[in-house]
């Protein structure tokens, strides 16, 4: 599962603008950071699109690159 959130960086910490989904509790998370307003707006448009069209993958889903290229 993934969520896209905004956060404020203050005193060496990221302060999230809203809470994470409860299913994330206790999990190790990967974080990608880029400054809001960076670039020509394409990132923001993409993030808005993703936020409006969530994808629910099963917890057992795995991505297999080799399987993808075998098709």
Task: Bin the helical content.
Answer: 10-25%
Strands, total number: 2
Q: Strands across the major sheet, in which order?
A: 1-2
**Could you say which overall geometry the principal axes of the C-alpha atoms support?**
extended
Q: Estimate what percentage of residues fall within beta strands.
A: 5-15%
Query: Which sheet architecture does the biggest sheet show?
Result: 2 strands, antiparallel
- Rg measurement, Å: 15 Å
Helix/strand/pairing category: alpha+beta
Strand-and-helix sequence, N→C? EEHH
Mean pLDDT: 82
Number of helices: 2
Number of domains: 1
Which blocks of ≥5 consecutive residues have pLDDT under 50?
Answer: none
What is the distance, rounded to the nearest whole angstrom, between the alpha carbons of the first and last residues? 26 Å
